[in-house]
Amino acid sequence: MAYKIAVIPGDGIGPEVIEAALHVIEPLIDAEFVEGEAGDECAEKHGDPLPEDTLELCHEADAILFGAAGETAADVIVRLRQELDLYANIRPVRGFPGLRELTGEPYVRDDVDFVIVRENTEGLYSGIEGRFRDTAYTLRIITEEGTRRIAEVACDLAEERGSNTVTCVHKANVMRETCGLFREVCKEVVESRGLEFEEYYVDAAAMFMITEPERFDVVVTPNMFGDILSDEAAALVGGLGLAPSGNVGDRHGLFEPVHGSAPDIAGKGIANPFATILSAVMMLEWLGEDEAAEAVREAVGEAIREGVVTPDLGGDKKTMEVAEFVREAALNRV
Ligand code: ATP
Ligand code: MG
């Protein structure tokens, strides 16, 4: 059966990296790709950064591949998360051999492989804030239901990866009620799934992610901790140009690079397409197209090993040259 995939290129380098990712996956799955508008340019044209017909397209689609939105990013992505109930943010942290040498960054690790599952709808980003005279405050809401469903996603991922442990990152020694509930519910869910429950305080986790990242496998954590830890982890495996993400719920999945619209390099054809190609890999996995997903991931690894990379990784290739290489390398594998 052919999939219907909603494609939202958006602004800046969004359309360039999306073109590259589609070039790679098009020959590998039976799908209809339907383009929708969203972002700054769309807002200028239609007076709305996320028009009804784009929203409708996302509702109908089997999956969504998203590029980037500029100034309107918060409106677009936050709204999509709410409308489609995309409560889990999934950020794989996976190194590729050769990356440390390519980037020249001593902290880059070629050998790490873990995944961060961040709760996407509550916690410190609930948006319930206020000011009273000279005092500002925010409400940190953590619910049993919200925690239960994110913990289940982490357990599903652990099972898919063949891991037996889920690691909960929290700060329950200080935030006894909110983190206390998060920890308690995660522990209950993880153990009821027959998996082992591990835990770290977030400060310790931040340190070990650099010094001993091999400690981690599947990490589940509340909203803001996940936001911060996943950027730290992205640096560990080569930075923004390589970091993919998925926003998933019970029915919908939206996949996008972690980076934004990068206006400074837009239109030059030099944007690194790996983050978006790897987001498409996550989408393929989520759809159950594991063989195609693995072929593309290995093809990205080959491009990195061969030095077929854009200028941000020290190469001299254009976005579409990299895409062409990855497409051919992936096709050779299926
Ligand atoms: P936005 O407001 O849309 O987030 P930004 O200016 O914050 O835009 P980001 O996309 O977050 O830009 O990128 C931050 C920096 O990283 C920019 O200098 C950008 O050029 C670089 N960068 C981001 N993504 C890529 C990529 N895919 N390839 C190469 N460089 C990138
Ligand atoms: Mg940015």
UniProtKB/TrEMBL annotation:
Keyword Metal-binding among record annotations: yes
InterPro entries linked to this entry: IsoCit/isopropylmalate_DH_CS, IsoPropMal-DH-like_dom, LEU3_arc
Cofactor(s) listed in the protein's UniProt record: Mg(2+)
Record keywords, A-Z: Magnesium, Metal-binding, NAD, Oxidoreductase
Keyword Kinase: no
Gene Ontology biological process: coenzyme B biosynthetic process; isocitrate metabolic process; L-leucine biosynthetic process; tricarboxylic acid cycle
Pfam families for this protein: Iso_dh (PF00180)
Isopropylmalate dehydrogenase-like domain boundaries: 4-326
Alphabetized SUPFAM superfamilies for the sequence: Isocitrate/Isopropylmalate dehydrogenase-like (SSF53659)
GO MF terms, alphabetically ordered: 3-isopropylmalate dehydrogenase activity; isocitrate dehydrogenase (NAD+) activity; magnesium ion binding; NAD binding
NCBIfam families (UniProt xref): LEU3_arch
Family according to the record: Belongs to the isocitrate and isopropylmalate dehydrogenases family.
Protein name: Isocitrate/isopropylmalate dehydrogenase
